[in-house]
From TrEMBL:
GO terms for biological process: DNA integration; DNA recombination. Belongs to the 'phage' integrase family. This is Site-specific recombinase XerD. InterPro entries: AP2-like_int_N, CB, DNA_brk_join_enz, Integrase-like_cat_sf, Integrase_catalytic, Integrase_recombinase_N, Integrase_SAM-like_N, Tyrosine_recombinase_XerCD. Gene3D superfamilies: 1.10.150.130, Intergrase catalytic core (1.10.443.10).
Length: 381
């Protein structure tokens, strides 16, 4: 493998023979330029020759990051992933990645560009969680670019996003606020959905995908087997949960059983009143028996919060409220983890780390009570 170093103007460059073109058989040469000193050019030439000898050299592609990401979505994600995953990736790429780095040639994309992208997302007010997910999505896409030999290595591989504790942005209600909300929501059609969200910690998609066949009233259990999601193809019942652990059996309280039984009676009355057949067997439907749009339930939830005069939270924060209240009552984190369908107990402890200090304080104070008992026992002997 031969290479030659030359000086062009004030800069140094080198040229390598990279073999013959497989189609034409003609000899191919590649120039590498822009080095400040001859020593820098020599060092870079040695590295390139080593790459060529190892078979690791990849000719720079002329496509931009935008063109690559669109190709990745269509050629890799669309045929091999769920439509919901495609929709999420498409949204991240369209709203965050392409506006920030789309015009950069793929072979020139470096860690500095990705760090600047991250900073610009946070400066725009994008949440740290969304910014972190954007970088993670880019990493996954660039791994495919390496696999397809479009670039030699992933420039996002060593990017670290500091976002603080997992649950740093969550908001939760106290037990008094929960009861205040339920009192205001009691006459609402979707009161049972709110009640179930609070007492089980189910995700909104799990709630709206729940079927009557999933509920065992005698045993007081719910089987979570599917989700309802808004996709680019419309509302879809996905016969899969977020993760394998999300497919779970959870116990429900006697009061929750009663709320659901009353709801079932009311739903049957609506079927007669509005003359529709129970096609989906869904627990929560519109007045015409169709699946409930998640966005509509969220908007109605926000309306009831204002009506109740409570601190605003997201619908998903009902899940966090459920977990926080259980942990504060001394329920073991493993049980909470199982109810939420987390992949591990460590995930639960990480998300709800804000609850742990108060639990630690209570545990420490319990020892004072134990020691006080011991002291009294010795005094009485």
């Amino acid at each position: 493998m031969k290479g030659h170093i030359r000086k062009r103007g004030s800069k140094w460059c080198f040229v390598l023979d990279i073999g013959r073109d497989p189609e034409t058989g003609k000899r191919r040469q590649k120039w590498f330029s822009g080095f400040a000193t001859k020593k820098e050019a020599q060092r870079a030439m040695v590295e390139k020759i080593a790459e060529l000898n190892r078979g690791e050299y990849i000719e720079p592609t002329k496509i931009t990051v935008k063109e690559f990401l669109e190709m990745w979505l269509e050629d890799e994600v669309k045929p091999n992933r769920k439509i919901t995953t495609y929709d999420i990736y498409h949204s991240v790429i369209t709203n965050h990645l392409i506006p920030g780095i789309g015009n950069i040639p793929l072979n020139q994309l470096g860690p500095i560009h990705i760090n600047r992208l991250l900073k610009s997302l946070l400066d725009r007010g994008i949440s740290s969680t969304s910014a972190k997910y954007s970088v993670r999505t880019l990493k996954v896409a660039l791994n495919w670019a390496v696999k397809m030999q479009l670039i030699p290595k992933n420039p996002a591989a060593n990017i670290r996003v500091s976002t603080g504790p997992s649950g740093a942005g969550m908001k939760v209600w106290t037990d008094e606020e929960v009861n205040q909300f339920l009192q205001v929501a009691k006459e609402s059609k979707y009161y049972p959905a709110f009640y179930l969200a609070i007492t089980t910690g189910m995700r909104i998609g799990e709630l709206l995908g729940l079927k009557w066949a999933d509920i065992d009233f005698d045993r007081g259990t719910i089987s979570i087997r599917r989700t309802l999601q808004r996709t680019s193809a419309g509302l879809k019942l996905i016969e899969q949960t977020k993760t394998a652990k999300s497919r779970r059996l959870i116990s429900i309280s006697p009061s929750t059983v009663e709320v659901l039984k009353k709801h079932r009676v009311q739903q049957k009355k609506e079927m007669i009143q509005y003359n529709y057949r129970d096609v989906y067997d869904l627990v929560f439907t519109t007045r015409t028996g169709k699946p409930v749009e998640p966005r509509n339930l969220r908007e109605y939830f926000s309306f009831l919060i204002k009506k109740a005069g409570l601190p605003p939270i997201r619908f998903h924060d009902l899940r966090h409220t459920h977990a926080t209240l259980l942990l504060q009552q001394g329920v073991h984190p493993k049980i909470v983890s199982e109810r939420l369908g987390h992949s591990s107990i460590s995930m639960t402890l990480d998300i709800y780390s804000h609850v742990i200090p108060s639990m630690q304080k209570e545990a420490a104070e319990m020892f004072d009570q134990i020691i006080a008992v011991e002291a009294r026992d010795k005094k009485n002997c």
